[in-house]
Amino acid sequence: MQPFGPWLILLAFCALTWWVTPRRVNANQFFDGRTDAGDPPGILMVAMSAAVTWVFAKSIANASDLAYGYGITGGIGYTIYYLSFVVAGITIYLLRTRGGYRSLPHFLVSKYGATAAKLFMILVTFRLGNEIWSNTKVMSLYFGAEGSGAYWAAVVLITAFTVAYAWRGGMRASLTTDRVHIFLAFILLALVLTVLFPGLQAKGIPTVAEATRSSGITFCLLALVQVFSYPFHDPVLTDRGFLNRPRQALNSFLLAALLSGSFIFLFSFIGLYGLAFGLGRPPSVTVPGAFGLAMLLVFNAIMLMTGGSTIDSTLTSIAKLSARDWRPQDLAPARGHVTTGRIAMLVVAIVGNLPLLSIYLGDKVGPAIIAATTISGTMVMGLAPIFLLSCIPQAGPISYQMAFWPGVVLGITRAVETFAHMRILPDIVRLGSGPFALDLGVNTWGVALCSVTFIAGAVLAPRPIGISGSVQRA
């Protein structure tokens, strides 16, 4: 049974997902998730979809790893990232009700110009590519060791199936399947915690050394700083802020913050269990392994539910970005956009998994390629003032450039330090203690620098004040 168990779970996942995927959709449904009657999706549907797309396979593994390494503060720190829903939800609500914008690129073109919007979309494309390989890898490791035949078979099958149903229904398929996936994921998580809690309660929440706890607190502060910029470079999240009416979208995001944050925090208890009982790394594999095949299959199902939802949403965002957002004048969806979007899905699904081949390039080149694909998360600190200070009327293209590029430079510098094992930034930059001190310092001082240069751009090269957009009904 053991060799076939994960494949049976994959078969059941594919059958259920295909069953709930819409058979045929029009352009409005493909890009905007509309119902057959042409109505926007409801508050709960958008909330469940947004939540599960951020409770992805890699995120789940990170939450348990951080709790394992830093105790309860590690789990709290990762949960703080889910305040991104609150930051993005309020910002998008204000953009829509005050300016009538229909997407973030629409806003960027109007406020900062087409060049600014193109730079932004190039940046988020790196983020979307990162979502493809990272989630595919985490899911496929439950089928075999990295590089094994079973592993690569899982990579191909998971990717092919996800492309198939995303191709079929776009955003509408993503919304309808996501609500099923998150419902089942919560049930499975409840089952896991029911098994683990008695043992963890008997042992007690594990404590860590004071230095380790301080490192965990530093990570919490890092997460708190990053939530003001991080959500804006993830169209999987922000696209859902424009699917229904502004007030409904805001409510959806607030509910999504509660759903996804709760899931991640509860899942971090997997890491606490592994720490308490001295199990090895990674806890997302060793903890279920300690309970036998049945628990491993439950974890496999959770990873498929959450990872699959993230990949299909990533492909849907790629379709919208390439077919509609890249051309700022093409705001209304058309049938031709669907064809373009589907081709983009296929291309990114293939290219986005190429970093998985880096395991064959050696111990130095392979990790460097993986690190390079993840730079986008550290380059986006400049987006905080670009969106949060956009209310400054004089801020225009120069303000954008003066905020965008310092963040990119600092992010690339930090990435070079990481995978080239060299020190570039001085110790005076550090804030807090432990391995996250430099990142906290770079992000804190970086956001401050980007904000100052953004405001300086508004003073030195003010944008002509005009009226653009149209207010949307809340």
List keywords for this structure.
474 residues, mainly alpha, Sodium/glucose cotransporter, 20 helices, Na/solute_symporter
Question: Could you give a short description of this structure?
Answer:
It catalyses: L-proline(in) + Na(+)(in) = L-proline(out) + Na(+)(out). The chain has about 475 residues and is mainly alpha-helical.
Distance between the termini: 54 Å
The CATH C-level name of the largest domain is Mainly Alpha
Question: Taking Cα atoms only, what radius of gyration do you get, to the nearest Å?
Answer: 22 Å
Mean pLDDT: 90
Structural class: mainly alpha
At the fourth level of CATH, the homologous superfamily of the largest domain is Sodium/glucose cotransporter
Largest sheet: none
* Percent of residues in β-strands: under 5%
Could you please say which CATH topology of the largest domain applies here?
Sodium/glucose cotransporter
Shape: globular
| Helical segment count | 20
Query: What is the string of helix and strand elements?
Result: HHHHHHHHHHHHHHHHHHHH
Helix content: over 70%
Topology:
Elements: H1 5-20, H2 27-32, H3 43-54, H4 57-70, H5 72-80, H6 84-99, H7 104-112, H8 114-140, H9 149-203, H10 210-226, H11 235-238, H12 246-276, H13 283-290, H14 293-325, H15 335-351, H16 362-373, H17 376-379, H18 383-388, H19 397-420, H20 437-460
Helix pairs in contact: 1-9, 1-14, 3-9, 3-12, 3-14, 4-5, 4-12, 5-10, 5-12, 6-12, 7-8, 8-9, 8-14, 9-12, 9-14, 9-15, 10-20, 12-13, 13-14, 14-15, 16-19, 19-20
